[in-house]
């Protein structure tokens, strides 16, 4: 039972990491109806996502050993990435809360405006 809970936690952490990576891109932020991140905030979100991905890999190898830990990480990685793409395709509003929380990574709480001249 404990093992299932740990694997579920690994999967949820990987899901959040892939959601962070996806929500740094403009089309996905537009789908969630949130403003675009500043470049520094996008970099912070990508670094956090990378740390989460590597952290789960280290925890899986530490818990299950080199062979099965890496296999577990790769499998959960694939499932989590598919889950994020499914949610972004069908129900992007489910990730709107995370997208709004990512706005706190902006050094200034301003939105990026695109001015069209001509």
From TrEMBL:
A Pfam family recorded for this sequence: DUF3325
Keywords associated with the record: Membrane, Transmembrane, Transmembrane helix
Taxonomy, superkingdom: Bacteria
Residue ranges crossing the lipid bilayer per the database entry: 6-24, 45-62, 68-91
InterPro entries for this protein: DUF3325 (IPR021762)
Name this polypeptide is given: DUF3325 domain-containing protein
């Amino acid at each position: 039972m404990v093992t299932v809970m740990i694997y579920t936690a690994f999967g949820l952490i990987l899901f959040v990491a892939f959601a962070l990576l996806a929500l740094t891109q403009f089309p996905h932020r537009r789908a969630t109806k949130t403003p675009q991140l500043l470049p520094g905030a996008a970099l912070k979100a990508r670094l956090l996502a990378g740390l989460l991905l590597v952290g789960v890999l280290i925890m899986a190898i530490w818990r299950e050993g080199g062979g099965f830990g890496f296999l577990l990480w790769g499998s959960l990685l694939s499932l989590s990435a598919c889950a994020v793409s499914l949610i972004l395709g069908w129900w992007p509003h489910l990730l709107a809360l995370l997208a709004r929380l990512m706005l706190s990574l902006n050094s200034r709480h301003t939105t990026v405006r695109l001015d069209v001249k001509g």
